[in-house]
Amino acid sequence: MARVCQVTGKTPIGGNKVSHSNIKTKRRFLPNLQTKRYFLAEEDKWITLKVSSEAIRTINKRGLYTVVKELRAQGQHI
Question: What is this structure's pTM?
C-alpha cells in the first residue's frame, strides 16, 4: 500500500459518493500525504518522510528526533 503515512499510519478508507438524487457509488477517501524533507540535526543528515498533515503537526509539537526514535523502535527503516 503506497498511500500510507509513515508516522500516523493513516491509510485510504472506503465510502460512498452520494449524488443529488441519493444514488450511492463506491469511492475512496485518500489521506492528505506530503513528501517532506527534514534535517535531523542529531545525526547531521537529511531524511525524507511521506507524512500526512496531522503528522507534520505532530512532528512540530513533539520534535523530529523523538518521532524518528519511536519509528525506529517500531522497526521502520529511516
Answer: 0.85
